[in-house]
Write a structure and sequence with these properties.
Blueprint lengths: L1 E6 L7 H11 L3 E5 L10 H6 L3 E5 L7 E5 L4 E4 L19 E6 L2 E7 L9 H23 L5 E6 L23 H12 L3 E2 L30 E5 L1 H4 L2 E6 L15 E5 L2
Parallel strand pairs: 1-2, 7-8
Antiparallel strand pairs: 1-12, 2-4, 3-4, 5-6, 6-7, 8-10, 9-10, 11-12
Helix pairs in contact: 3-4
The structure holds one DNA strand of 15 nucleotides.
DNA sequence: ATGGTAGTCCGACTA
């Protein structure tokens, strides 16, 4: 089974590219983030026509997460916890998580809050959100350690200095701060390991490149998109790739797709 | 030179 995650930065603005990528990549399950649309705006029919079941969760033009599957899509849930933190005024639980069971794997498509700036309310929200995710993950594996769970998506954290093109540039930025890295490590300590890194070692291996400043051609990116697998899932991983090619050309997302190959 | 890109719905917000 092939499982992918991709922050598409609007599914409608680049539907042709997304459809073409899904078709040629021979993926069984795809988690999308930043679809940037409401449920009724999601182009479900286009994905159905190429053989995928669709689940989408979007409340506005912001955020939005989806799952595409050709190996079943059951027990869809839009919240990993009954107390996912809300944000804004009025405070709302944003569309940042969507879970479903696909081919025996519990897959969560996750779009972790950006954080915006150290000390910003959005930063505290990000840390809280990640702690609730850790608590949920701990509970799932506590109930059944053999469960196959994949926490995938845009985590908006670069876990080590090797995961940014120049640590000095990010010295007082979000994504690299000690509390954010601790929140990521807490997920790892809860039993969810980065299954891609062993197959895509650094340095200079990234999943995101800012649109500005010619960051992509200069190879100045960040590694912030992950597939974190429970022990039973991690044991099945036979390979992984970051599709840097898809970041090229007109109309690309600023994130590359990440693909994991699982043994049957 | 406070610049540079791209998405949403239409001046501003988000990343």
């Amino acid at each position: 089974m092939r499982l992918a995650t991709w922050n598409v930065n609007s599914v409608r603005a680049r539907l042709d590219r997304v459809l073409a990528w899904v078709e040629r990549s021979d993926v069984d399950v795809v988690a999308l983030q930043e679809t940037k649309c409401k449920d009724e705006q999601f182009p479900e029919q286009a994905f159905a026509e190429i053989g995928y079941q669709v689940a989408h969760h979007g409340l506005s033009q912001w955020n939005g997460v989806a799952l595409l599957s050709r190996v079943g899509l059951d027990d869809v849930s839009t919240a990993f916890s009954p107390d996912v933190p809300a944000f804004g005024d009025p405070a709302v639980v944003e569309a940042r998580a969507l879970g479903a069971t696909c081919g025996g794997v519990r897959v969560w498509s996750l779009y972790v809050p950006n954080g915006r700036a150290l000390g910003d309310p959005h930063y505290d929200y990000k840390l809280q959100w990640l702690d609730r995710l850790r608590a949920a993950g701990t509970q799932w594996l506590g109930e059944d350690p053999a469960r196959q769970v994949a926490l995938v998506g845009d985590f908006n954290i670069a876990p080590t200095d090797e995961d940014v093109w120049d640590p000095a540039v990010f010295a007082s930025s979000t994504h690299v701060s000690a509390p954010e890295r601790a929140a990521f490590q807490a997920l790892v300590d809860a039993g969810f390991t980065d299954v891609v890194r062993p197959h895509a070692p650094g340095p200079g291996v990234f999943t995101y490149w800012d649109y500005t400043q010619l960051r992509f051609p200069k190879r100045q990116g960040m590694r912030i998109d992950f597939v974190l697998g429970s022990p039973a899932l991690a044991a099945r991983v036979t390979g992984a790739t970051i599709d840097r090619q898809e970041r090229k050309g007109k109309g690309a997302s600023d994130h590359a797709p990440v693909i994991v190959e699982l043994a049957d």
